[in-house]
Design goal:
Blueprint lengths: L11 E9 L4 H12 L7 E6 L2 E6 L7 E3 L1 H6 L15 E8 L2 E9 L5 H20 L15 E2 L12 H20 L24 E7 L2 H8 L8 H21 L6 E9 L1 H4 L9 E9 H6 L3 H15 L3 H11 L4 H5 L9 E8 L11 E2 L2 E9 L8 E8 L2 E8 L6 H19 L3
Parallel strand pairs: 4-5, 9-11, 11-14
Antiparallel strand pairs: 1-6, 1-13, 2-3, 3-7, 5-6, 8-15, 9-10, 12-13, 14-15
Length: 432
Amino acid sequence: MLADDRVAYPMNFFLRFEFTGSLDQHVLQRSLEESALQHPLLTATICRTAGHWGWQRKLQTTPRLHDMTRQGVAGPLRFRPLDVRHSAGLQAFLCARGNKSELWLQVHHSCADAVGVLHFVRSWFVRYEKLLSGAAQHNLMFPNQRKTWIVPDGQTCRPDLPRWRYMSPRRREWRRLANFAVHRPRRILAPERTSKATPHEAPWPAFVRRKMNWTADAWRRTKAGLPPDASLNDLLVTGLFSTIARWNDDVVKRRRDYSLRIAMPVDLRAATGNVAEARNHVSIVFLDRTSRAIRDGQDLLAGICQETGWVKNHHGAFVLHDVLNALHGVPGGIEALTAPTTCTSTTVLSNLGPLSRYLPHSQRLQLGEATLTDVDFLPPIRPGTLAAFGILTYGDEIGVGMQYDRLRLSPLIAEMLLDRVVSTWEQDLAGG
């Protein structure tokens, strides 16, 4: 998984920024390289030594800005999976179309998560504006030149909590992960198979996106009719469960009981205080529900609120890190957990929240003469997980991006699935 170069299911995610106005490509490239020097894992590759994988930092391994304008005019952009054994785990792509520009970031999940990349983007954009104004220094040095091997600090993976407060609730999360290992959820069902086109022939990433109107006032009115501890994310998880259950029932036309599982990334930075560096510092919480419980629907939202609240209050997300650390010492342990032959999650829901949390702005973000008009987030998918949903709010719009398995879902089916999900979410947000 760390050096995953498979074409169909690489551990890559994407951020897309759409601007109105011109971007200086030369300054954008230079600011990208200089900003990446402050984030060690973005200038490193994975090497194997003494039987273990490790990050080795190299000055020549820096992210690049690729000009995709010619390809973008001819059709949809096509990317290649990143192999972090040979190149940096972050690459940028710029495509100019008239007065509009698309800036894509492709990131390998082993070197950074989406939250870490957005923190990096902030430093990148700040550096870009300084270079445009001539206020930036021109002699940045490569930091920590003598320290080429990056050794992760294991102490940063757990909050500073009394042992009794951490160990006692951990047993409950171990039971959840045991259920994860034993029971396999049903995947999203497709009414039809796609063509037999090879992965190299199809555009990648395969994605669809939608926008939902959202305001803080409207959310306050909706929240008044929800359980007191309900969050926006709880509402989205509940709607996703119910939509996929109805979708599968419509495809199969059977009412047999089965289980669905939503993988929900949890940011660990708030508990550890490590907020600025681009690295993979998230864990995963797996939420399981049976189709029968979803169809009943009475206590679905309340149960989700209770479960996610427990994870937050007792730091349950750190247990997965303990499991992964333990498996690292077992030959073949990680390979067995991430084997591509089984469906580990029905789908993924990753909510990054408002963009202003990472890139402060008032109404619209300005970058020199360019104005950011749209932004999308496409989470990574794994074998068996046919679709992953990414949420990123910009202004009064909630952006919903869905990266899907192009070998099993056709573009038409993917559009239909996302339309159903967004329709449910809009109805729930309206208090319906």
